């Protein structure tokens, strides 16, 4: 078994930082040592197979992106990253674990879909992967399948309050699924937007000739997110199930989550980089020479980007500091402009919903440290440690300690990263939602279960390095 020493760096955890060497033996971390330590009298640097010099650099636990949609069939097309391209791009950006969503559409068998997702991922991934299950057809067979999936390590289930006829569950279906989750220990996840309101607003906007991407934002108002978030919390309270609200973008939804948490409920919130940095005015309302007022299609996702004039973005950073929001995932759901997003030319409601960011989450959040919005420790917590605890992987993932998987990122605070489709990007997209973003830091080396998969020459791993993670129940409950 190969041994590697990550030497001379500053090891950062969710609770502190310090100079330390990390000894990796095979796939796991063997020891976290005083810098320059010897073991049984011998100089470690001389006795290991490989030394990674981390002098002047940070050593983080590998990033965990708990919300991705590789190859997802959605909006009449498929998300443009496969498990192969998407996980490789993730690796480039210092993410060593994803949790992807198995999709059940109406009339589909949940367990068949679960097996299909395994077929898509197996042998193709650059990094480790787990699965959540989306339920779009809550009936007896789906509820029974939830018990079986828990045994398979799929311990979290997403329901939707939007997308009628595709994903939407009514309140009675949500109640039944939440009751099942309360009985088997699952974490229930919610896409919290009132789809009934949104569908009417969309039809009214289109009838007025408001067809550009900007109106995707105005027809999914914060009130629809706040109301749905509140309703989901009430059904969770009634049933006693823990609730994780995905892709929170409205400050009013944050307030609902904060109030539930103050009341003592196991209610959690996730936000995404796009809701921290991007806005209705600047992105959804953008124009370009190439696309005219269709440029905003690049940022059509749901929940939508919110108005900066209303202060949602600043509030989201604050909520990350105060733990009203616990973690950041990408909701990586990429589509190309040509042949995919352009299906919505002349009708924004036909633009496939989603943004691709799996490669950039660590850098974008690290910039929050540089900008004084987060501590370095909180950065590690929201990008790795909390996702591991929230979704039953902690101990193996999310922490640098003996016995944990050697998923490690050597990050250079003196490095620099320019994000863009030509500059750095490895996702299968013909544009970048982050074109021109500059990061005051750089992912230098990435280890996945002890294997160096990114070094100074670039990606050096192989497809199939990544393995399925059979997750346990959430370790985050109050
Ligand atoms: O726009 C989004 N978020 N696309 C992915 C599907 C979802 O709702 O998470
Ligand atoms: Zn969603
Ligand atoms: Zn999603
Ligand atoms: Zn560098």
UniProtKB/TrEMBL annotation:
InterPro entries membership: Amidohydro-rel, Hydantoinase/dihydroPyrase, Metal-dep_hydrolase_composite, Metal_Hydrolase, Metallo-dep_Hydrolases_sf
PANTHER family referenced in this protein's UniProt entry, alphabetically: COLLAPSIN RESPONSE MEDIATOR PROTEIN, HYDRANTOINASE/DIHYDROPYRIMIDINASE FAMILY MEMBER
Entry protein name: Dihydropyrimidinase
Keyword field: Hydrolase, Metal-binding
Coiled coil start-end: none
Cofactor: Zn(2+)
Domain of life: Bacteria
Record family assignment: Belongs to the metallo-dependent hydrolases superfamily. Hydantoinase/dihydropyrimidinase family.
Pfam families the record matches: Amidohydro_1
Annotated organism of origin: Pseudolysinimonas kribbensis
Gene3D superfamilies (UniProt xref): Metal-dependent hydrolases (3.20.20.140), Urease, subunit C, domain 1 (2.30.40.10)
Domain Amidohydrolase-related stretches: 58-452
């Amino acid at each position: 078994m190969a041994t590697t020493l990550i030497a001379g760096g500053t090891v950062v955890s969710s609770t502190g930082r310090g100079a330390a060497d990390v000894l990796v033996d095979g796939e796991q971390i063997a020891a976290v040592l005083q810098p320059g330590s010897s073991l049984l009298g011998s100089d470690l640097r001389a006795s290991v197979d490989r030394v990674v010099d981390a002098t002047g650099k940070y050593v983080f636990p590998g990033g965990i992106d708990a919300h991705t949609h590789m190859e997802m069939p959605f909006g009449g097309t498929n998300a443009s990253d496969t498990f192969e391209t998407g996980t490789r791009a993730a690796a480039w950006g210092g993410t060593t674990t994803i949790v992807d969503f198995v999709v059940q559409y109406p009339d589909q068998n949940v367990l068949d879909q679960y097996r299909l997702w395994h077929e898509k991922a197996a042998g193709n991934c650059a990094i480790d992967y787990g699965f959540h299950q989306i339920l779009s057809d809550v009936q007896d067979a789906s509820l029974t399948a939830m018990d079986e999936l828990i045994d398979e390590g799929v311990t979290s289930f997403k329901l939707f309050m939007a997308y009628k006829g595709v994903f939407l569950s009514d309140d009675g279906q949500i109640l039944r699924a939440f009751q099942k989750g309360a009985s088997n220990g699952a974490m229930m996840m919610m896409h919290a937007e009132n789809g009934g309101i949104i569908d009417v607003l969309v039809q009214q906007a289109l009838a007025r000739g408001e067809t550009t991407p900007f109106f995707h934002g105005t027809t999914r108002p914060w009130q629809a997110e706040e109301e749905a978030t509140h309703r989901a919390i009430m059904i969770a309270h009634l049933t006693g199930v823990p609730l994780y609200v995905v892709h929170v973008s409205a400050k009013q939804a944050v307030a609902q989550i904060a109030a539930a948490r103050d009341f003592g409920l196991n209610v959690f919130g996730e936000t995404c980089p796009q809701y921290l940095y991007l806005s209705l005015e600047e992105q959804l309302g953008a124009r370009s020479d190439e696309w005219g007022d269709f440029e905003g299609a690049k940022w059509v996702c749901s929940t939508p980007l919110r108005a900066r004039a209303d202060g949602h973005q600043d509030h989201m950073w604050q909520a990350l500091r105060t733990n009203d929001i616990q973690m950041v995932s990408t909701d990586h759901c990429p589509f190309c402009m040509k042949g995919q997003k352009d299906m919505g030319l002349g009708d924004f409601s036909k633009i496939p919903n989603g943004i691709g960011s799996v490669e950039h989450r660590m850098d974008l959040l690290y910039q929050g440290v540089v900008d004084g919005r987060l501590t370095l420790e909180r950065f590690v917590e929201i990008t790795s440690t909390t996702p591991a605890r929230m979704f039953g992987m902690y101990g193996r993932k999310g922490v640098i300690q003996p016995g944990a998987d050697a998923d490690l990122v050597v990050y250079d605070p003196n490095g620099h990263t320019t994000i863009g489709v030509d500059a750095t990007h490895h996702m299968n997209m013909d544009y970048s939602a982050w074109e021109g973003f500059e990061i005051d830091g750089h992912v230098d080396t990435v280890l996945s279960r002890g294997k160096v998969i990114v070094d100074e020459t670039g990606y050096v791993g192989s497809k199939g390095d990544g393995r399925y993670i059979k997750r346990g129940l959430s370790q985050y409950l109050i």
